[in-house]
Specification:
The protein has a single domain (24-180), classed as Glutaredoxin. It is 37% helix and 16% strand. It is built from seven helices and six strands, in the order αβαβααβαβαββα. It has a six-stranded mixed beta sheet with strand order 1-4-3-2-5-6. A hairpin with a 4-residue loop joins strand 5 (146-151) and strand 6. Helix 4 runs parallel beside helix 7. The longest helix is centred in the first third of the chain and has 19 residues, at 2-20. The termini are far apart.
Length: 182
């Protein structure tokens, strides 16, 4: 019983310490998003942001994750116009290579910048690395899907996520958040 209780306490503190590392509302983003896009061109927050900021989607993979692909195609269907009209640009970030991202962009005629975080450095800095995958396993380096609404001063204004990677916040939820910030 004592061993079980000790393990339970250690697990609780491990989870609490990990949760504390997640970037949350009010935080300044931990990186300048200096990554390559789908064309292997260098990007940064200043290049990507709109007048009011950036909506940053962290996805598992545009290459192999059907839930991510559906989310991205939903974004393309028009609700993104409301985000853009409100002064926010949109960018997608995954651990995919620029070549994999470019295949998605070309196949679906996707209009938003897609950022390659091949080593998951930015994913780890945001504290959203999926820890179910271990180094060497397929999918190691993927994030737990999140959407960050980031102000032009790099301050996180809102974080949207769901408990399961199979369910994602809807684009209309992002639009509602942005409208509430006006």
């Amino acid at each position: 019983m004592r061993v079980f209780l000790s393990l339970l306490i250690i697990s609780f503190f491990s989870l609490s310490a990990n949760a504390a590392q997640h970037v949350k509302v009010g935080d300044v983003i931990p990186t300048n998003l200096e990554l390559l896009n789908e064309k292997s061109e260098p990007q940064s927050f200043d290049i990507l942001k709109g007048n009011k900021g950036l909506v940053l989607f962290f996805i598992r993979s545009a290459d192999w994750c059907p839930y991510c692909q559906v989310q991205l195609l939903d974004l393309r269907k028009g609700a993104a116009d409301s985000i853009l009209k409100a002064g926010y640009n949109i960018a997608i970030l995954s651990y995919d290579t620029p070549e994999q991202l470019n295949k998605f962009v070309t196949r679906y005629k996707f209009d938003f910048p897609m950022l390659s975080d091949e080593n998951s450095k930015t994913i780890k800095a945001f504290g959203i690395l999926n820890e179910d995958k271990k180094p060497g396993e397929f999918g190691y380096g993927i994030p737990n899907p999140h959407i960050y609404v980031i102000g032009d001063d790099k301050t996180v204004l809102s974080v949207l996520s769901k408990e399961s990677y199979t369910r994602r916040p809807e684009i209309k939820d992002v639009v509602e958040v942005i409208e509430s910030l006006k």
